[in-house]
Amino acid sequence: MEEKRHTSSHYERELQEVKEGLLYLGALTEKAIEQAMGSLLERDSALARRVIAEDERIDTLDMELEERCIKLLALRQPAARDLRFITTAIKINGHLERIGDMAVNIAQKAIALNDEPQLKPYIDLPRMAEITRGMIQKSLDALVRDDCALANEVRQEENTVDCLNDQIFRELLTFMMEDPRTIHRALLIMQISKNLERIADHAKGVADMVIYMVTGHSVRHQYPECPDRNA
Amino acid sequence: MVNQEDRIIIRTENVNFYYGEFQALTDVSMAFETNRVTALIGPSGCGKSTLLRLLNRMNDLIDGCRVEGRILFEGRNIYEPDVDPVEVRRRIGMVFQKPNPFPKSIFNNITYGPRLAGVSGKADLEALVERSLRQAVLWDEVKDILGQSAMMLSGGQQQRLCIARALAMKPDILLMDEPTSALDPISTAKIEELIEELKKTYTIIIVTHNMQQAARVSDFTGFFYLGKMIEFNVTEKIFTKPDMKQTEDYITGRFG
User: Is residue B161 part of a domain?
Assistant: First the structure.
């Protein structure tokens, strides 16, 4: 359905700027994940340090966006879809900022791992990273297009990431049981996997908020069925 | 159904209303719950004030107007020929946009209506004045100057005096037509606080252009557009996720 424009063009623009800010923040976090994973796969600690340094931009943008939203709440007293959008924006903003922090965690673990010989070829981790990056992208596309179906896709994918995380955990467990000298590296890899799994949780959080924004119903703390989740 | 059937004090059934040839309301059916605040919102000319005035037959005073449908107050159609409009207006009081005290003393403003209705006796009238002014949260401010002219009160005090005057008739329903649009924010806040208090005793129906006010004070909200009731819902629902696109457009300021 075509959206009517707001009577106040200033207000319309301010709302649009919040949306654009979120998309930009989303792009920064995707890049942070890509580079953090790149620093692991390419054993490039300089790149990892860049990710850590650039998190400051994400933090600054997070605070700016939050301030804008609070200003809109105070000055415009938004209602209905505008109110749902702004409250959603505040929460999505928080999710994205946390994703930035997780990318930093991954970069830090990568630096530690790069100091030692590689334990094993990385196969599932890049897959996980790819899925989680896609989830962030899709959840923000869903935001722009008011697309609940797409948001639901993201919510489903969170299961896949959880399953991959479990699988990595089991695999690393066997490494550690066979050779205790691998424990340090295995734990670091596990933490990277855990961080990716947490990123997927946050991406699902973004998707949950999109569904709230569009429908007015909260689906937070509701999880789509995953048959092999406890396998 | 938004309302609880057993709590309904007044309802309109398929009401059409015409000013001469012009149809101001089209097929309005809605119900108002007792001891609740219902807000009517919508752009200018949407028919919300017309509906409010229909509820206590204030439109009778306008030439060439015509009502179709029924307005049932406690089950009885107030437009039946044998219904006394004065009695209707006693039980369904009204407060207007601009404070309109009589150019009389504060005391006499309150007692004017009850005296006409046959209340006499100094003690009874004094008790009534105190009770009404207390209910309108004006007593403490005016108790020592009851003999002075109502015209010397501030706008906010005058409006509360008008509310007290309406309450003195012991109505069941209080209709308020933009009661704070001529008041400053502090006086507005006092009236809103008062509405919260009054709904324990009275049923309140309020027309307001201030949507935040509707959101703050009302339990139910009806949105009107071009003489039709577009949506009637619990206020919280109207302001967070209304069912109708037109309502959403209006309350978010995407209109016209």
Answer: no
